[in-house]
Design goal:
Keywords: Hydrolase, Magnesium, Metal-binding. This protein is α+β, with helices and mostly antiparallel strands. The protein has 8 helices and 16 strands. The strands form 4 sheets. The protein has a 7-stranded mixed beta sheet, sandwiched between helices. Strands 13-12-14-16-15 form a 5-stranded mixed beta sheet, with helices on both faces. Strands 1-2 form a two-stranded antiparallel ribbon.
């Protein structure tokens, strides 16, 4: 049970990928941890279970902390020598982001993506896990427990929701349907960029859970995302899920989005490469 990573040749990483045993074992761990630490607290949080981190809209709950702790313990046990970059651990120690640049396989974990929705008792939240090696996402797991959705992706082997293969939407010339950031997090500059997108004919929807936004793109329900931040726990799982479904990522600097950071923002992950170029052009970046 594990991964086999080949050499990097001609600028493209080649890998035999994640084996079926590890894919299934991680799925079991995610379901069990979410079932024990997250779902029982949905609509049952007390004031003492909720804390504020960097600002009034940046929340953390006991479910986030306990789920990340258990995922950290169990995922590293499944793959000896691996390490974890989790949202809550990085909040306490930003230096942990440096693990993404090392040689050890990295589990990138968002225990509750969409914490604000979780706190409000809404169903739009998910647990996100991605396995990254030397900056390349190899596999991902996206679990929205209340919606009963469990999506997986393995590099080179496609993306699936349950047993159904995912495909992004076919190209077209109609208005682009794009997920973008929640208004409470937007700066004046970002609001101006989004106004330009709308003026160019895009139809924008604000998301509270990046993982579910990516899932919509991978399912062909939306044409892409246009995002302004690069926290790896928000994007690693969805990036692989969408690209394995046929999509493509592009930053405003003209390069694919890198989960290791240093991207020129904003960026898009869209239904195909042509759409990604179209979105970046509308965002004011490299065409």
């Amino acid at each position: 049970m594990g991964i086999e990573v080949g050499a990097v040749a001609s600028g493209a990483a080649e890998t035999d990928g994640v084996d079926d045993a590890l894919l299934a074992a991680v799925g079991t761990v995610v379901r069990q941890v979410v079932g024990a630490e997250v779902v029982p607290r949905w609509r049952a949080l007390t004031d003492g279970d909720i804390a504020v981190k960097s600002g009034p809209h940046d929340l953390v709950t006991i479910a986030d902390r306990r789920a990340e702790q258990r995922l950290t313990e169990q995922l590293t046990a499944l793959l000896p020598g691996s390490v974890v970059v989790g949202e809550e651990a990085v909040s306490a120690d930003p230096g942990l982001l440096g693990l993404l640049h090392g040689d050890a396989p990295v589990w990138v974990v968002d225990p509750v993506d969409g914490t604000a929705a979780f706190v409000r008792g809404e169903d739009g939240f998910a647990t996100l896990v991605a396995l990254v090696h030397r900056g390349e996402p190899l596999a991902s797991w996206t679990y929205a427990p209340i919606r009963g959705q469990f999506a997986t992706a393995v590099r080179g082997r496609g993306a699936h929701l349950g047993g159904t293969r995912l495909r992004t939407a076919a190209g077209g010339d109609g208005p682009l349907r794009l997920w973008t950031s929640n208004p409470v997090y937007r700066t004046p500059a970002e609001r101006g960029i989004l106004a330009g997108l709308e003026a160019a004919g895009a139809v924008l929807r604000s998301c509270s859970c990046a993982g579910l936004a990516y899932l919509d793109v991978a399912r062909g329900l939306m044409d892409g995302v246009a995002f302004f931040w690069e926290a790896p726990w928000d994007h690693a799982a969805g990036l692989l899920l969408t690209t394995e479904a046929g999509g493509s990522s592009l930053t405003s600097g003209g390069a694919p989005f890198a989960v290791t950071g240093g991207n020129r923002l904003p960026f898009t992950v869209a239904r195909d490469a042509a759409t990604a170029r179209r979105v970046v052009g509308m965002l004011g970046g490299t065409r």
